[in-house]
Amino acid sequence: MTDSNLNQQQWVDFLKKVTFFSEVGKSSLLQLCKNLTKEHYEKNDCIIQKGDVGDAMYVICEGKVKVHDKDHLYITLSQSDCFGEYALIDDEPRSASVTAMEETTLLKIGTTHFVELITADRGFAQGILSVLIKRHRELDIIQERLTVSKRDLELANSKMLGLINGAMDAIIMFDSNFRILLANASAKEILENEDVIQRNILFFMDEESAHLLERLVTEDLDGEGKSMNTYLPKVVKVIGSKETATLNEGTISRYGNEKKSFYTLILRNIDERLQAESKINSLTTQTQYLQEEIKELTSGYGIIAKHRSMKKVLDLIEQVAHTGATVLIQGETGTGKELVARAIHMASDRNEKPLIRINCGAIPENLIESELFGHEKGAFTGATATRKGRFLLADKGTIFLDEIGELPLALQPKLLRVIQEGEFDPVGSSDTVKVDVRIIAATHRDLLKFSMEGKFREDLFYRLNVFPIQVPALRDRGSDVCLIANQIMGQYSAKLNKEIDLLTKEQEKLFLDYVWPGNVRELQNLVERAIIVSQNGQVDWESIIPNPTKEQSINSETEVDYIFTSQEWVAMEKENILRALRKTNWKISGEKGAAMLLGLRPTTLTSKIKALGITRPV
């Protein structure tokens, strides 16, 4: 090793073989080498004088030195040995002198740069800590070799422990039997125990984390003693003596010899980070939900009303919008009850606040309470984070409870409390939440009859029925059906980039003669289909709009032994599934779901819906 070829990379390779830096990665050592200096001493030159305050440690590149006090020799050191390490952690006078025994070349590591690097580079700090902990276990050997006094050994030990205990991360050292040998203050805090020495570290972990740590150690022991220094592949759950659970990421490293192995586990609590991530995800979900609501607000067709029945509805909207009264909107499926609810909200004093919608019939019974009122973390299986309910999202605004007749009986008293007192308790919480929410409910059912049959609370019905609005069926709105059809045609022709002629008088008669059992929703679907199959701006409306009389005639003329093609069979199956879905208001599973009507399992029906390209109309 000469001056001409000893560059930084060679220094890194050299330091990697030095015991003090053996656990430090090469990238960290390269940063260390950028501020190293090389010093040359002749035989009998004094390198460190006893009593001086040290400002660096040294690594011997070539030559030999002795550590002594006058004529008393403590030890001789040669290539790859280090001395002066205590200068890195204190400014006490040196207890011995160091003198060159022959021509000697040293690498000098300044205290200032070392401290800066151990503070900024976690990998460097971890490597040094591993060596220091190793030295802690080898103090007896050091005592025999250096023959220092008991007081000096205790002082050196306390300095090393001070460095370990001062770390914010939890540092735990254990043997191959998982018995804890050393734990710093941060470790005792998450273990919630001041007396952990000789306790089994696996007892402080949940089953999955204990298995992970046990597997890593077992694999290391079976690996012929190769060094281990790795990040834990999964988050570790630590359970303290007081049952407090914390989630931690960390690293594990091994040191020892062929006969004994010891492990250093460094853990960092990430609970606060996970909570922050959960809050960000919650806010993102809220934002996405509100963006969808805004999109729907700005993409609807509005309410077209020339018929007196629908004009009456608009008059009622104007009357009730500014009052803040609870509104119950009734009408057949697909008549536009949600449009009425949105119109009330937009005409009210709450229009700058959100309109939050929830379909009470589309959410499983075991989840709807959490969806409406929110829940606390751990309130039930799967509740990994606190969640705000729809009522809290609608605070100072309006909540639209669609299909209110499907709300479970057990949950109805809680809704009644919100209406009467403006407060509720989230699932799993004892804290009462106050809200200022305007409630608009909608249903296609006869709630009064439901209440008489015991399927709906009578007191809740009367609290909801403060201001009832009956939305007429499309068949009862006269020429409105043609006006709505023309507007929907304009919307879809622009969307699909197809020019479509408006309805002629003859075509309008087809629309007026049909009873529209699916109301506006059915009209929307038929118009979309018509535009898709249109040719040169023309639509064969006779083939699009169902003609019950014609279909009945065709069916009566159909021979019993007629063989359907595969395409016809698929079309029949699709239409049959659509009828079942319309009849059950697109409810798939459950006692009153489409799957039961069709005699299919819900998962089978879901697969068929996807395969046939069936989508629920907006």
TrEMBL record:
SMART domains documented for this protein: AAA, cNMP, PAS
Species, as recorded: Flagellimonas algicola
Gene3D superfamilies from the UniProt entry: 1.10.8.60, Homeodomain-like, Jelly Rolls, P-loop containing nucleotide triphosphate hydrolases, PAS domain
Record's protein name: Cyclic nucleotide-binding domain-containing protein
Residue span, Cyclic nucleotide-binding domain: 20-118
Any one Pfam family match given in the protein's UniProt record, by short name: AAA_lid_14
PROSITE patterns attached to this UniProt entry: CNMP_BINDING_1, CNMP_BINDING_2, CNMP_BINDING_3, SIGMA54_INTERACT_1, SIGMA54_INTERACT_2, SIGMA54_INTERACT_3, SIGMA54_INTERACT_4
Sigma-54 factor interaction domain ranges (all copies): 303-532
Keywords on record: ATP-binding, DNA-binding, Nucleotide-binding, Transcription, Transcription regulation
